Amino acid sequence: MPLCTIAETPRIPEHCIAYAYVLQWPKEFPDRKLDADSPDDMKWVHSKAVERAEKFGIEGVTYMLTMGVVKNIIPAVASTNAIVSAVCVNEAMKVLSFCSQSLNTCECRRLLLALPLFKISQLTCRVDMMYMGSDGIYSHTFVYERKENCPVSSSATHKMSLPSSTTLNALIQQLCDGEFRLKAPSITSSENTLYMRKPMALEKATRKNLDKTLKDLISDGEELTVTDPVFPDTSLGLVVKFED
């Protein structure tokens, strides 16, 4: 909030509270920092804010609001926590009592039929729920599913079809801009290091390959190994097929 508004023309309760702890507190206690977790300090700020509000005819200065302003508490955080908690409890009641369909109806029902009641804690549903308060309690949901050829969670070898005249630099750019979204890929074949970013000496030695075409560096259908900071604990297997 602008300091001139706090000091000269307060209009809302928050301006009065800010005046108390930003301007009045340093004057009253120049050698002591305000402790937002101290009830005595917060009561002092609240009382001064009330005095300020009464002077300007402003209503709404409460102790809870004082805590929120001083501690910079965002109401949306508490609201979100409450909504998530309510949804979790609601789903637990559905699972335990069979009183209604769960968010992930088919998967939950299949698992419930397969599990004894004492193993109910093992039931997991990865469901994304889009809650919009203006739309009421009915929410759009969809189930997260594992991508079969995910480069992170699977060891699947990926295939790309490219013209043989494609340069190694163009292939690297495609790996960065395409579905893999890599950041700084290095590429090796079964026999050669095509391009390696680190160490610096190896990068300098393989830099000349960037402008070479794939047909000059690899054979058709050869499997390449791609490493990248995106995959710190694994590598990407890539088979390049020449379109021509």
Describe this structure in words.
This protein is an alpha+beta fold. Helix content is 42%, strand content 13%. The strands form two sheets. It has a five-stranded mixed sheet. It has a two-stranded antiparallel ribbon with strand order 1-2. The longest helix is centred in the middle third of the chain and has 23 residues. It starts with a helix and ends with a strand.
Number of strands: 7
Percent helix, as a range, is 40-55%
Class by SSE composition: alpha+beta
Beginning-to-end CA distance, first to last residue? 65 Å
Number of helices, counting only DSSP H or I runs of 4 residues or more = 9
CATH topology type of the largest domain: Structural Genomics Hypothetical 15.5 Kd Protein In mrcA-pckA Intergenic Region, Chain A
What's the architecture of the largest domain in CATH terms?
Roll
What would you call the shape? elongated
- Quickly count the domains: 3
Mean pLDDT: 83
Low-confidence stretches: 106-124
Widest sheet, order of strands: 3-7-6-4-5
Strand content: 5-15%
CATH class of the largest domain: Alpha Beta
Largest sheet: 5 strands, mixed
Order of helices and strands: HHHHHHEEEHEEHHEE
Classified in CATH, the superfamily of the largest domain is Ubiquitin-like 2 activating enzyme e1b. Chain:  B, domain 3
